[in-house]
């Protein structure tokens, strides 16, 4: 039977390598460091103190975590798929064919002097990026509920990651778009330098609306069923299947409050050189994006404390 011996915590342990009559001393240079030599690092996590306490500096401190989420989204999206990234091209190409047949050949909708494939595909590439990023952003908080309840990190990392990972799909679709444009003998013009600005506008729109939807979906789970209907309505409220020139001039600024209207018209103009250059409609779209983005940041930050308890 094993024996159990109790020993005081102040009593030194015997050293089996030394004789019993040897002094149980330890050289000073080998002694264990004291508590004073090892200062403790204390991290205090506190809720935001106000509406404008966004703590955006934490995003830079956790940039490696953001990179991990982006890389994970890209890998999981095409894991165990038969044709992989070809889905990025197939979806807008098939939609382009349907729109060309029904809205172009049958309905005879105007295309501002552009071939129907170029007219529709130049709108579907930014729209597909926006729609995919927004749908992924809506579900990202609920899908990562186990991570949220176990470890602290800036919650803004979650909605930002699907918006940035969608740029990979956009880049693939954009290459195909340039091939289609070159096939119809369109040459780049100086207007193409505006493309980064329109892409940034689409990214901020997806992020701003996604902040609202991701927080609301964590609080009310039926939001994810509303998003597909919202995207269908939003697509037909944007100049994807028709040119914005059909909208009367006096209502053009009101139509521009739809941020994707300025993005899609801008993409067509920047790639083909046809259409109206940026004007009041783009200014209205930019103002709407800023309002949506700032409101989304404030709302997401306000709901951040309740999200962990509701997911």
Protein described:
The structure is a single chain. The chain is an all-alpha fold. It has one domain (about 65-310). It is built from eleven helices and no strands. The chain has helices spanning about 55-60, 65-75, 85-105, 115-145, 145-150, 155-185, 195-220, 225-235, 250-255, 260-270, 280-310. Helix 3 packs across helix 4, helix 4 (about 115-145) runs parallel beside helix 7 (about 195-220) and helix 7 (about 195-220) runs antiparallel to helix 10 (about 260-270). It starts with about 55 loop residues before the first helix and ends with a helix. Residues about 1-10, about 20-25 and about 30 have low confidence and may be disordered.
List the main descriptive attributes of the protein structure presented here.
mainly alpha, single chain, disordered N terminus, 311 residues
Question: With helices defined by DSSP (H or I, 4 residues minimum), what is the helix count?
Answer: 11
User: What is the mean pLDDT?
Assistant: 82
The low-pLDDT segments are 1-11, 22-26, 28-32
Query: Could you give the distance between the termini?
Result: 52 Å
The biggest sheet amounts to:
none
Helix proportion: 55-70%
SSE succession: HHHHHHHHHHH
Annotation, overall tally of beta strands: 0
Rg over CA atoms: 29 Å
User: What is the percentage of strand-forming residues?
Assistant: under 5%
The class by helix and strand makeup works out as mainly alpha
Shape: globular
| Domain tally | 1
